[in-house]
């Protein structure tokens, strides 16, 4: 299995990773399948001390346009990318999956 599949990122665009797969299974009602246990354990292991989840890698490049004043505007902002800082989008998806799997109080 590719290490990149195990890396948390947002958004997934056309890439498939463990979080996206778990989210699809949760939405389809199959997150309770015993074959999800190892992937759910992996997801839980990536939880930060503050309870959030990081975006460990970026799957996009920010587009830059010039404003009339000459400044640059980033059209895409999907939160921080860092193994030590939480990303709100990844955190929301991860908590959704863990709640659906019955792994949250």
End-to-end separation:
31 Å
Structural class: mainly alpha
- Strand elements, count: 2
The coarse silhouette is: globular
The helicity comes to: 25-40%
Number of folding domains? 1
- Percent of residues in beta strands: 5-15%
* Order of strands in the sheet with most strands: 1-2
Series of H and E elements? HHEEH
Characterise this structure.
The protein is mainly α and 105 residues long. The chain has one domain. 31% of the residues lie in helices and 6% in strands. The protein is built from 3 helices and 2 strands. It has a two-stranded antiparallel sheet with strand order 1-2. Helix 1 (18-28) packs across helix 3 (88-100). The radius of gyration is 16 Å and the shape is globular. The model is unreliable at 65-74 (pLDDT under 50).
Topology:
Layout lengths: L17 H11 L8 H9 L18 E3 L5 E3 L13 H13 L5
Antiparallel strand pairs: 1-2
Quick description:
The protein is mainly alpha-helical. The protein has 3 helices and 2 strands; from the N terminus they run ααββα. Strands 1-2 form a two-stranded antiparallel ribbon.
List keywords for this structure.
single chain; 105 residues; mainly alpha
